[in-house]
Specification:
With about 500 residues, this protein is of the alpha+beta class. It folds into three domains: about 100 residues, Rossmann fold (3-Layer(aba) Sandwich), CATH 3.40.50; about 70 residues, ATP-grasp fold, A domain (Dna Ligase, domain 1, 2-Layer Sandwich); about 240 residues, D-amino Acid Aminotransferase, Chain A, domain 1. It contains 18 helices and 23 strands. Helix 4 runs antiparallel to helix 5 and helix 12 runs antiparallel to helix 13.
């Protein structure tokens, strides 16, 4: 079927990204917005926009009834959930389908199966996908968990069965600490996901986080689009992603790709998804989870494959078969993505809401910027504080790394604190240059990375400072007191979080 009008059940950068894909495919794009997003960039770019509620997410972007009503009243025939919010909610997927609309994503049963981590582990075990040694039981006592941990071997991770995004996770190194970790993880899991169940996995010391992008159509075709390395993390949240991984060789790449395809087939997967693995220093890989949606970091795969994943999502949802086979696919060059957030690394990465008095994105060959905001827009306290994703491509990894360093240097933000200089320090670190960053690296070097701040303003910065000052002086509704209270308003910009 030919899709004609798409409701984008999301906001910010990903909504803008989907709008652009719809435009290229001749599909009308309908945005939704809350009170806080009335004038947001995704609203300005859409063909039509519908108010869905108050600023808190539960009243707007998580309001299933309001989203379905918006789709119906604007004549939509399909719904794209983006990532975050309801993108991995099987109830929302089912509601869209029950309303007679096309869901641009996997079947609700696949979302449910992979959303409960213990069920996903059981499915992967039956599909012969490698699993981290672990223990799961809905009826086990603390004593059972302690006995299982002794059998698995310390350190172990206590993980929430019903969610992800780094919540409900504890690393335990001694048996005496396990009961407290179980209690804490259960409380956090209940609060975050409404599901207090937890399970154990062996904790992989100095592991690498590597994921495989998969695509599947409704005609039985499933392929992988190679790997992305996401080991640069802070508190289990990704900071920098790249493809190819500097760790992975061809043999490992295809073994992981085959495992990811088997994982997708095991749940009857359709559309775009990502299978995540943890890799040991000895290069053994184990299934972690499957994200049943588009990933934040999908642009790095697009740049090394030449494919548009959002347009492919729309085509698959419309019933089209994949236009290629596995043998047709190859990687070219190297891509790196950095997530630029309105947050203060020197104060524990707390979000820094406020108005973007100036936002100058890098503009150079091989540089792509996916942004949901521009100068004059507001980073609100209600949602994720991402400003933009900066993605670069070059023929070599070192070329891409240098290009990213230059792109970050040329990125200027005034009005909010940002993590720009933190990203610059990370990209320039000897360990990142050598491709040796594991999932513990940022936490181990946090003081060093957050201390970096070049402090020197270049000509572009000075020009933007002058423009911002001129705008403030010309706007009588902005007082000097308001400007002074803006977090670090004239410092060079050197991220609630989205997840993977």
């Amino acid at each position: 079927m030919v899709l004609k009008t798409c409701l984008i059940a999301n906001r910010g950068e990903i909504a803008v990204r989907i709008i652009r894909a719809c435009r290229e495919m001749g599909v009308r794009a309908v945005a939704v917005y809350s009170d806080a997003d009335k004038g947001a960039r995704h609203v300005r770019l859409a063909d039509e926009a519908v108010w869905v509620g108050a600023a808190p997410p539960k009243d707007s972007y998580l309001n299933i009834a309001a989203l379905i009503k918006a789709a119906r009243q604007t004549g939509c025939d399909c719904v794209h959930p983006g990532y975050g919010f309801l993108s991995e909610n099987e109830d929302f997927a089912a509601a869209v389908i029950d309303a007679g609309l096309v869901w641009i994503g996997p079947p609700p049963d696949a979302i449910r199966a992979m959303g409960v981590k213990t069920e996903a582990r059981s499915l992967m075990e039956r599909a012969n996908v490698p699993l981290v040694p672990g223990f799961q039981s809905d009826t086990a006592t603390d004593a059972d968990f302690i006995e299982a941990a002794d059998r698995i071997g310390y350190p172990v991770m206590v993980k929430a069965a019903g969610g992800g995004g780094g919540r409900g996770i504890r690393v335990v190194r001694r048996a005496d600490d396990l009961p407290e970790a179980l209690a804490g993880a259960r409380r956090e899991a209940q609060n975050a996901f409404g599901d207090a169940r937890v399970f154990l996995e062996r904790y992989i010391e100095h592991g690498r986080h590597i994921e495989i992008q998969v695509l599947a159509d409704s005609h039985g075709n499933t392929v992988h689009l190679f790997e992305r390395e996401c080991s640069a993390q802070r508190r289990h949240q990704k900071v920098i992603e790249e493809s190819p991984s500097p760790l992975v060789d061809d043999a490992m790449r295809y073994a992981m790709g085959d495992a990811a395809v088997e994982a997708a087939r095991a749940v009857g997967y359709v559309n775009a998804g990502t299978v995540e693995f943890i890799v040991t220093p000895e290069k053994a890989f184990y299934f972690l989870e499957m994200n049943t949606r588009l990933q934040v970091e999908h642009p790095v795969t697009e740049l090394v494959t030449g494919l548009d994943l959002v347009k492919l999502q729309l085509a698959i949802a419309g019933g089209e078969p994949l236009p290629f086979t596995q043998a047709d696919l190859a990687q070219r060059g190297h891509a790196i993505e950095c997530r630029l957030y309105a947050e203060d690394p020197r104060s524990g990465f707390v979000p820094s809401p406020g108005t973007l008095l100036a936002f100058e994105a890098p503009d150079a060959p091989g540089v792509r910027v996916d942004a949901g905001v521009e100068t004059g827009d507001t980073i609100t306290p209600y949602y994720d504080s991402m400003i933009a994703k900066i993605i670069v491509h070059d023929e070599t990894r070192e070329g891409a790394r240098r290009r990213m360093a230059a792109a970050l240097r040329d990125t200027v933000v005034f009005g909010v604190a940002t993590n720009r200089d933190f990203l610059r320090a990370l990209v320039g670190h000897a360990a990142f240059t050598a491709g040796e960053v594991d999932t513990t690296f940022i936490e181990a070097h946090l003081d060093e990375l957050t201390a970096a701040d070049d402090g020197a303003a270049n000509a572009l910065d000075m020009a933007l400072i002058a423009a911002a000052l001129s705008e403030v002086q010309a706007e009588p509704t902005i007082s000097a007191k308001q400007v002074a209270s803006t977090p670090d308003p004239w410092a060079r910009g050197d991220g609630f979080r989205i997840g993977g």
